[in-house]
Specification:
This protein has about 450 residues and is an alpha+beta fold. Helix content is about 50%, strand content about 15%.
């Protein structure tokens, strides 16, 4: 059921208002229909009472007996006096009508011994043939056609005869239903239209703010010129203004961080370079090589840490790049150094990426495979809507419960920080950060035949 519900704020609000309006109109329609029935019933009862009282007064005035003329049915408005009630066993009495009619007659001074009110289909009376002939002669002229006859028979106190009055019940016009539907549609159009305009005024700036937040999350180095101007209702304007202030503060903090990292890199690399020069004066070749290796480890670790810190605010642009060619160039670098990294099957895929950073991620994964397994095979394939760069090795792999932890900064299988046995544990964390910078992910999984498979998964399109 939830799949069919609108997901946007505007859609959900419009649906809620439409359902509430439907319920309200349904209740209103029921009340209006009930009121119409009551008006119709009261009209019928008062018509019968008027004919009873009016005909009785005329009878007393001229002494007429009000018997039906011979050979033809009496007129509808004529009050009849009959020796027996016209009620048949098949007729269904209307008790509510009888009670209301009795109250009216009693209030007018007509004491009754018994009241019978019942309804018959017009086709079961002589009047039915009359209206049928009229339809044949005139056709339907748009006026309501009678569908039944309401008959009231009253026996007065102290009398054995029955006073009989009749009135017609017209078929209910569809006009009421048409008017109700038209009214509902009009209310829907007006109310939903007004609410849609109000919601649009609210949701349009929210949508712009959402896009800005998404863009800022992907690239915190966005220009301040692209910030959303406060607009819409006061609450929405306040939210946009608060976000702009927060974005400005985050940008300032990131700028301060970049300045600080640059200063740290400069202040540390300068003395390291000086030390590298000074150790050349050491006579012992073995000691000099160890010192140079230590300085190189410190320099590389520092470079990895600074790169990981800056990956969230890359300075190089995104450019369309042929992924298999970029991967092949990285593999060639290792081959030129005589290291066991080979290029497997590749598929030509062009993606907008930051080539320098992606090359760094592939290089880190291959270096990690060389360090722990002595070799690596790099492949490129298209898997659904993903471009997958896989670096597979035949090493010992990683325990399943530690796969996620290995991608955290400074986490590694070897607890030491020796570059020869694993380094500082930043390579995988940096590769994951670069993949996420491109909207992708880094996935580590152990191979069934042994070894580890590290996959950079980048979205296509």
């Amino acid at each position: 059921m939830r799949r069919f519900l609108p997901k946007s704020l505007q859609g959900q609000m419009l649906l809620a208002v439409a359902l509430a309006l439907l319920v309200a109109q349904g209740i209103g329609a029921g009340i209006a229909y009930r009121a119409q029935l009551e008006r119709e019933e009261n009209g019928i009862i008062h018509s019968l009472a008027f004919r009873m009282i009016g005909g009785r007064v005329l009878r007393q005035a001229d002494g007429s007996e009000m018997r039906p003329p011979r050979g033809r049915p009496p007129r509808m408005g004529r009050l009849l006096r009959m020796d027996a009630t016209p009620l048949l066993e098949s007729d269904k009495r209307k008790r509510a009508f009888e009670a209301k009619l009795g109250d009216i007659l009693s209030a007018q001074g007509l004491e009754t011994a018994e009241i019978q009110v019942f309804e018959r289909d017009i086709d079961d009376t002589p009047l039915g043939r009359f209206f049928e002939r009229r339809r044949e002669l005139r056709g339907r002229d748009g006026r309501p056609e009678p569908e039944s006859v309401i008959i009231a028979s009253v026996r007065e106190q102290g009398s054995d005869q029955w006073l009989v009055a009749r009135t017609l019940r017209d078929e209910r016009e569809p006009r009421f239903l048409r008017n109700l539907i038209g009214q509902t549609l009009l209310i829907y159009v007006v109310l939903i239209g007004v609410i849609a305009l109000i919601l649009r005024r609210i949701t349009k700036p929210l949508a712009a703010l959402t896009r800005r937040v998404e863009d800022f999350a992907a690239n915190p180095a966005l220009s301040p010129d692209g910030r959303v101007e406060p607009q819409g209702p006061l609450d929405t304007r306040s939210l946009i203004a608060a976000h702009n202030a927060m974005e400005a503060r985050i940008g300032a903090l990131l700028d301060e961080k970049d300045v600080m990292l640059g200063a740290i890199g400069h202040d540390l690399k300068t003395p390291l370079a000086a030390l590298r020069v000074r150790i050349e004066s050491v006579d012992d070749d073995h000691e000099r090589a160890k010192m140079a290796g230590t300085i190189e480890d410190i320099t590389r670790t520092l470079d990895d840490i600074l790169s990981l810190a800056r990956v969230g605010r890359p300075s190089d642009p995104v450019e369309p790049t042929e992924i298999s060619a970029l991967t092949a160039s990285v593999v060639e670098e290792f081959e030129d150094m005589g290291q066991a990294v080979e290029l497997g099957d590749t598929t030509r895929i062009v993606l907008p990426v930051r080539a320098t950073w992606l090359r760094r991620a592939i290089r880190n994964l291959a270096s990690n495979a060389l360090r722990y397994a002595g070799g690596a095979c790099v492949t490129v394939e298209k898997r659904g809507n993903l471009a997958v760069i896989s670096v597979a090795d035949n090493g010992p792999g990683i325990p399943e419960d530690e796969l996620g932890r290995m991608m955290e900064p400074f986490e590694r299988g070897d607890p030491s920080r020796n570059r020869g046995t694993g380094g500082a544990g930043i390579g995988l964390a940096l590769a994951r950060a670069i993949a996420e910078q491109h909207g992708g992910s880094l996935v580590l999984r152990n191979r069934a035949e042994g070894g580890l498979n590290a996959e950079l998964r980048l979205p296509i399109g």
